[in-house]
Amino acid sequence: MYSLLGPALFASLVAAHGHVTNIVINGVSFDGWDINSDPYAETPPVVVAWGTPNTANGFIAPDAYTTSDIICHLDATNAKGHAVVAAGDRVFLQWTPDWPVSHHGPIIDYLASCGSSGCETVDKRTLEFFKIDGVGLVDGTTVPGIWADDQLIAQDSGWMVEIPSNIAPGHYVLRHEMIALHGAGTEGGTQNYPQCFNLQITGSGSDKPSGVLGTDLYRPTDPGILVNIYTSLSTYIVPGPTLYSGAVSISQTTSAITASGTPVTGTGGATGGTTTTSTSKSSTTTLVTTTSATTTTSKTTTTTSAGGSGATQTPYGQCGGSGWAGATACASPAACSSLNPWYSQCVPTAA
Ligand SMILES: [Cu+2]
């Protein structure tokens, strides 16, 4: 349905950037870190996502690539629970439904083994990530091209990743990341949005791929980080280490939700059935009636105008640049600021 509405409406829906609200494994949805309530809670609920005080849906910039913030986002703290998934199964990562259409770039997924003590207590600075998925420029026919994030928007703002079937069972952090390149033509202008989740992978695989520390994943001048997407690109090199040989390339699909899951805690059971379950925001299994096989979130965003003459752009939306035909005025309190000749953005001004 969204695809019929076109990019102009999408741009007008932009309010901020984004984060993953929940993940879905075989129809079972696990809550993510709720930036609207969890950072303020004295005792945040046990969820499978790593926590962060990033309440503004912000990003990590290249000048922080050597700091621990690049690992699992700003000041991230370990998820206190995990979800069980069989090697070979898929995980659907549901983003907030407002990813800015201007924020083109790759989507990358990594795993890192937490070792025998599990991911709830692991020191993130010791995690060694190997890449299991990396999609960048899908079609460069028209500048600035069709990118992985465009596929995500078309898939109900979600991304499906398959856990390679040969991965050895154990506890892993799934590091899922969107990278926005609209300002990446200037060094330091790239935006990374890493999101981490704790998984217990089951199965009979034996692969234990080597990986790299989160703080060694990227450099500000990597060809996939410092890149001008407003020129014709024949190829794009997805940043980060080489793709794991057992990685599986899949066609993107959505995932219907049929139940809500309870995070598992501890490292006791291999199947998840004998470990201690904890309380969470959704402690019961609830059957959800779905009216559409592709709908996993409700969309209640309101919009004022959809571009064109007299329209105003919402904060962080595009308001100018070479070839831009949409709104050039910003809804207050925001001002149109030029990042480069190809992209101007409505930047909120102090109230
Ligand atoms: Cu942005």
Automatic annotation (TrEMBL):
Listed name of the protein: AA9 family lytic polysaccharide monooxygenase
Lineage: Eukaryota, Fungi, Dikarya, Ascomycota, Pezizomycotina
Listed cofactors: Cu(2+)
Bias (Low complexity): 273-306
Catalytic activity entry: [(1->4)-beta-D-glucosyl]n+m + reduced acceptor + O2 = 4-dehydro-beta-D-glucosyl-[(1->4)-beta-D-glucosyl]n-1 + [(1->4)-beta-D-glucosyl]m + acceptor + H2O
SMART domains on file: fCBD (SM00236)
Cellular location(s): Secreted
Organism (species): Penicillium egyptiacum
Region (Disordered): 258-312
